[in-house]
Amino acid sequence: MSSGNMNLTLKIWRQKNASTAGKLITYQVADISPDMSFLEMIDVLNEQLIQKGEEPVAFDHDCREGICGMCSLYINGRPHGPKYGITTCQLHMRSFNHGDTIIIEPWRAKAFPVVKDLVVDRSAFDRIIAKGGFISVNTGSAKDANNIPIPKQNADEAFEAAACIGCGACVAACANGSAMLFVSAKVSQLTLLPQGKPERKERVLNMVGQMDAEGFGNCSNTGACEAECPKGISIENIARMNREFLVASLTKKEPKNSGGGAM
Amino acid sequence: MSVLDSKIPEGPLDQKWTTYRSTVPLVNPANKRNLEIVVVGSGLAGSSAAATLAEMGYKVKVFCFQDSPRRAHSIAAQGGVNAAKNYQNDGDSIFRLFYDTIKGGDYRAREANVHRLSEVSGNIIDQCVAQGVPLAREYGGLLSNRSFGGTQVQRTFYAAGQTGQQLLLGAYSALQRQIGLGNVQMFARHEMLELVTIDGVARGIIARNLITGELEKHFGHAVLLCTGGYGNVFFLSTNAMGSNVTAAWKANKKGAFFANPCYTQIHPTCIPVSGDHQSKLTLMSESLRNDGRIWVPKKKEDAEELRSGKKKPSDIAEDDRDYYLERRYPAFGNLVPRDVASRAAKERCDAGFGVNATGQAVFLDFQFNMKEKYGRAEATKKGISNPTDAQLKALGKDVVKEKYGNLFDMYKQITGVDPYEEPMQIYPAVHYTMGGLWVDYNLMTTIPGLYALGEANFSDHGANRLGASALMQGLADGYFVIPYTIGAYLSTEVSRMSAEKGKSDSIDKLKTQHPAFDAALQNTQAQIHKLLSIKGTKSVDYFHKKLGKVMWDKCGMARNAEGLKVAIKEIQAIRDEFWKEVRVTGEANELNLELEKAGRVADFLELGELMCMDALQRNESCGGHFREEYQTEEGEAQRDDAHFSFVAAWENKGNGQFELHKENLEFKAIKVAQRSYK
Ligand code: FES
């Protein structure tokens, strides 16, 4: 089953580095098996390019099992391709047909500049987390875990928000390049848990402040982010964050700019 | 006497760590600010260590090759994390976790380290919950547990099938907090390519900025390698594509001994290989063995017809199914340890009972428990007195979905088969490496100032790791061990620094200006230049795949002396060919994924040979190391405690020469016995 029966035309964004312009280049691949993953199909193309002495297509990937959040392709106009609820690395070629033309581009967003070909810089996400996506508890100071009973429903809801893999598909899907789904998932997770309550106001203000500073756009409630999220993160998180933000802004005493409650 | 000093504290086993902690030298806060620590790798071990050391006041730099520390491969761990909390009141204790781990490791781990691991296991859960890690809970609001292989208690904490993700994001959040506070400097998309030593002491690293290609010099009073395992030497494994041995291997070349390289863990439940295009293998969590029953047909004809597609699994009558783990190991059944389950699957497939087109797969079947265990319980709850088969299935399916839904979806996505309807097909695959850099009780390697944490070291899992123990070890090392043990060394650094204070050419004044940094940088540059200038005809992957096949065939689930000798020759030949024929496209001064891969494969080509040498010298079977010549009549692994109760630590002498050093293992708290799961 190593070789299959699909021949495809690929139009792939090639860009040497951040400071040069890029363009779509057309390639052909043959004998693609439906059992291959999408990234394995690009592996085949790259092997072909190397044989010809050309530079392979650069793209981000690591775990190839849908959990690290590193893969990030914009396929036929959709982040992570045509199927719902999965990442690019989980997309398999059985979702395509012989003779298809597939357009492959990087995430497009002001806050995610292209590094090379299909690779983009998502470090803005890390900087947002560094502003408040945590609970300030130093190692060794924790009490016995079962001292804090948490209703199963809250724990489950927090878990659902925490399932975000930080891939950035929400930003890529959004016409405004908004990061509201990503930020609200973390805010929600920590707000839903009793451990996260003490810092909830500072957290939401600091994280939203950093999000704006990074150049992410505004949320206009179109829901594209939720639809394209490979982990099904709910748009309800955005509503929750908006409430948190409102309460925090109305009741804040004086601006805080620290990385959040050092102990 | 051995050159290896494990520095195990005196005193009774259960007092060692307590006594150590209260007597280890401390570093005062003012001095901590002058001490710089380099942490390589941002997985569970790296992130937890970096965050904790920064909280304590040290100046920390963290390096990872991914675009964010949150992507380290710990993220992919599915099943859970063990801790001796005894929340289930089922007789668990620190001693029992310690005992299970030593026994599970087939009596090839160091008692003192494993006992310490058990002692701190409970703190890990406390710490993670305090951080907001949403572990699974019961309706009463307390934490939930599940069972894992090789144990008879429920001590595994979990977050659906994404425990690694949740624990890593917890450690990552602690790390990001320290970054935000300015206590940690983060270097993402940076790869360590060389260790810098001065007079035999670790003083820093050379790292390549993967975006610009620039080689950077970074100084540290201590260097922590938290770089994971080397399973990708097999090309196909459950590891992430970028997981590699380079940091540990460069350290080995600089004097850090590499211990037990032949101990690799083959995980029994992975999705089978589907073709030559395969780039990696996907694990199906061990937790599935709680409810999935493993079987192959009893009759060869049935197996043949399954392979050719003439029969479906449901066509095989109950009486014609061989639940071979339940048959061979009635006490543990489907929950035997990983090495035992993997070998049993191979044995059945080699005997001709494999169930997929390649003959390399067995069934993992949920129908029985879905209907009889969960379906019936639900029916009783709902007061349905005579449930039909369809009702049982529908009721049970909801429970199974809640427990394993994401894994079932993942399976369907990859194979196109719905596991609620048909059994999964599984086969063993390389998953974890128990071997790694040799470390003493302090987690220090044989190079002063160089530490190895988590999967990168060898110390806790012996010859076989139990499920849900990797997360435990990574976090134990990072949160609760290194913050104490590093003080023993750094306090001596403080004295050295004050003694050398007036010297104009002291290490602390020169830092990266020291000539050793330039020499190391030039070495690295030379290797990069060489790789790019070969301009051969074959891709890096070509060599990696070739190496992987040799390793899997001859140093995989079963090994023998003859095969290993052949493998060594073959690997040498592949390595020679690599350095003549590899084609690395692109330039040095840009993002160049082929160049990154080439450097990693070059190191795997050396490590692979050492793994075979190690497997060849170990004339016994233990845990994941199964030498066909050494087995009992029932085909179980046969240890030779009289001759092989030691850790094999390999010193790299250069030019492919290695010297074996032995650390004898003594068991005082545990009676060494033949491992039995019957
Ligand atoms: S490569 Fe990790 S999520 Fe796709």
Structural summary, described in words:
- The complex is a heterodimer of chains A (263) and B (678).
- Chain A has 8 helices and 7 strands; from the N terminus they run E-E-H-E-E-E-E-E-H-H-H-H-H-H-H.
- Chain A has helices at 38-51, 123-130, 152-162, 169-173, 180-192, 200-213, 224-228, 236-251; strands spanning 6-14, 23-32, 74-75, 78-79, 101-105, 114-116, 119-120.
- Chain A is elongated and about 60 Å long.
- Residues 258-263 of chain A have low confidence and may be disordered.
- Chain B has 3 domains: 13-263 and 434-509, FAD/NAD(P)-binding domain (3-Layer(bba) Sandwich), CATH 3.50.50.60; 268-429, Succinate dehydrogenase/fumarate reductase flavoprotein, catalytic domain (Flavocytochrome C3, Chain A, domain 1, Alpha-Beta Complex); 516-646, Fumarate reductase/succinate dehydrogenase flavoprotein-like, C-terminal domain (Methane Monooxygenase Hydroxylase, Chain G, domain 1, Up-down Bundle), CATH 1.20.58.
- Chain B has a 5-stranded parallel β-sheet.
- In chain B, helix 17 (561-581) runs antiparallel to helix 18 (593-617).
- The relative contact order of chain B is 0.16.
- At the A-B interface, helix 1, helix 2 and helix 3 of A face helix 3, helix 5, helix 6, helix 12 and helix 13 of B.
- The site of FE2/S2 (inorganic) cluster has 13 residues of chain A, from loops.
Note the run of SSEs of chain A as H and E. Answer: EEHEEEEEHHHHHHH
Q: By helix and strand content of chain B, what is the structural category? A: alpha+beta
Would you identify the regions of chain B where 5 or more consecutive residues have pLDDT less than 50? none
As a whole number of angstroms, the C-alpha radius of gyration of chain A is 21 Å
- Lateral strand order in the biggest sheet of chain A: 2-1-5-3-4
Q: What is the helix tally of chain B?
A: 19
CATH topology of the largest domain in chain A, by name, is Fumarate Reductase Iron-sulfur Protein, Chain B, domain 2
